[in-house]
């Protein structure tokens, strides 16, 4: 209990500093992938064109402080919840020449990432099992990830799907085996294994393109479809 209160007080002290009058703070966000096979770079650079305000950081610190004092943390909303899954059938299915298929859960209003640009994303990966679609990776319980588009940093299906999204968008990708993991993914506690070249489903949120977007806004999932190997 003493440790929790101390952590809460630290967060409160940080807020006093953050909300003091000052210019925007430009820094570096550390992003690490829980799955080493995805081989995402460890850091995303935030340029002067895309400042992170002290207020935005403060809101995150406040959430963290309250979670520490309360002893619990809220799980992230899925990118495509139950209502979204049922509504997706009404969204047109798009297919590319490579065999990749996708449906846009939410069409973004920002830019399309140029090749070799870093993008900040959240995504989940699922595979079909005997009991239905089963998630084997999610970034939603941690920090968003940094991917350099069009450079082979991730599996081809995810790379291609991201390359035509707009910032702020959410998309479901139906990735065929030929564009999936050539070496497969080993099972982890509570998650299924993925054999080599197995079709998978990816829900992807393109949050931010450093250098193109002016604001860093991390949003939760949408419940409707109105929206490395």
Structure description:
Strand 3 and strand 4 (101-106) form a beta hairpin. 21% of the residues lie in helices and 23% in strands. It has 229 residues and is of the alpha+beta class. The strands form two sheets. Strands 3, 4, 5, 6, 7, 8 and 9 form a seven-stranded antiparallel beta sheet that branches. It contains four helices and nine strands; from the N terminus they run αββααβββββαββ.
Strand content: 15-25%
Q: What is the overall pLDDT average?
A: 73
Shape: globular
User: How many strand segments?
Assistant: 9
Largest sheet: 7 strands, antiparallel
Order of helices and strands: HEEHHEEEEEHEE
Alpha-carbon distance between the two ends: 43 Å
Radius of gyration: 19 Å
Helicity level: 10-25%
Number of helices: 4
* Sheet/helix structural class: alpha+beta
Q: Stretches where pLDDT falls below 50 for ≥5 residues?
A: 17-75, 219-227
Key phrases:
alpha+beta, single chain, 23% strand, disordered C terminus, 7-stranded antiparallel sheet, 229 residues, two-stranded antiparallel sheet, globular
Q: In short, what is this structure?
A:
Helices cover 21% and strands 23% of the residues. With 229 residues, the protein is an alpha+beta fold. The radius of gyration is 19 Å and the shape is globular.
Tell me the layout of helices and strands.
Blueprint: H1 2-18, E1 28-30, E2 43-45, H2 54-70, H3 82-87, E3 94-95, E4 101-106, E5 118-129, E6 132-138, E7 145-148, H4 156-163, E8 170-175, E9 200-208
Antiparallel strand pairs: 1-2, 3-4, 4-8, 5-6, 5-7, 5-9, 8-9
């Amino acid at each position: 209990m003493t440790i929790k209160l101390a952590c809460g007080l630290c967060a409160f002290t940080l807020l006093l500093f953050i909300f003091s009058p000052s210019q925007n703070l430009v820094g570096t966000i550390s992003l690490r992938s829980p799955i080493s096979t995805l081989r995402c770079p460890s850091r995303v650079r935030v340029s002067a064109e895309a400042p992170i305000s002290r207020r935005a950081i403060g809101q995150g610190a406040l959430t963290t402080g309250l979670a520490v004092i309360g002893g619990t943390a809220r799980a992230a909303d899925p990118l495509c919840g139950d209502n979204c899954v049922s509504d997706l059938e009404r969204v047109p299915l798009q297919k590319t020449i490579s065999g990749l298929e996708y449906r846009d859960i939410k069409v973004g209003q920002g830019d399309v990432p140029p090749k070799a640009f870093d993008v900040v994303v959240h995504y989940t990966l699922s595979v079909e099992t005997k009991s239905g679609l089963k998630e084997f990776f999610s970034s939603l319980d941690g920090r968003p990830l940094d991917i350099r588009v069009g450079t082979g940093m991730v599996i081809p299906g995810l790379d291609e799907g991201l390359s035509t999204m707009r910032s702020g968008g959410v998309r479901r990708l139906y990735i065929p085996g030929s564009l999936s993991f050539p070496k497969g993914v080993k099972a982890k506690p509570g998650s299924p294994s993925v054999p080599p070249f197995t079709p998978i489903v990816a829900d992807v949120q393109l949050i931010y393109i450093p250098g193109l977007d002016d604001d860093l806004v991390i949003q939760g999932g949408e419940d409707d479809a109105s929206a490395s190997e």
